[in-house]
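Before relying on records like the one below, remember that each one covers exactly one chain. Contacts with other chains, cofactors or solvent are not represented anywhere in the record.
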Amino acid sequence: MIRNKQLFILLLLIVVIVTSGCSKGNPHKRLSKDDQSLVWISDRERAFGDSDYVDLKTEEEAFKVLKNKYKVAIPPYYEQAKKLVAKDITTDAVQPGETKYLILARDKEVEFRTVYTFYQEEKLQTMAVINFYYTFSSDAKKARLERQVVNIKIAPANGKLPKDNYKEITQDLGALMKLPEPTISEGIQGFEKQIKESGKQFKNESVAIVTNSVGLNKNEELAKSISAIYDGGGNLKEIYAEIWDQTE
């Protein structure tokens, strides 16, 4: 009887160890298929080092550095976000300007930043910044795409989005981030209700429009949020959308 009990405990420990090992090998296995399409992870032996690439001329050149020097990949979300930004900001009067590409490596993190500009004639109207943050874990010996940010910034002199369409942008970003449609709609409704009922004018605040943070299990779902950021005068100055991979 005692031997059977000891055998049972031993088998249980083996199962726990094996399960733990599998989890560490693939932290994304419990994510939904939608969320798995948004992440990237790969084996890596050492940190990224320190280096800057600030004079990259084209997207192709930037991708080549990311792939060949840092051995990281770009998920489809990047291309999709780029198209969304162009669609939701460009008008007959407001057209794309220059695009800048930067890669900044600091030890265990690489930031890939793309800055899109939009002008009406010679006047800057809006900037859209896409940031991908890759991190290296010396314990796990893995590199991953930890955070993905789309940040739409309104030029202070302009004061509003070219299409005055924060709701459309929020809906499009939410869909791109694989947030459920009810979550997006309820978030927008709650945000607008808060403004209407309280008559509140936000100043120097970041206010969540849509988020899945309540009750989030970080090993089963990516953290996602879309926020409105206001300046000191109570004017909308940014829409900030972030996907954060916190799986272990």
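Confidence is low (pLDDT under 50) at residues 15-23.
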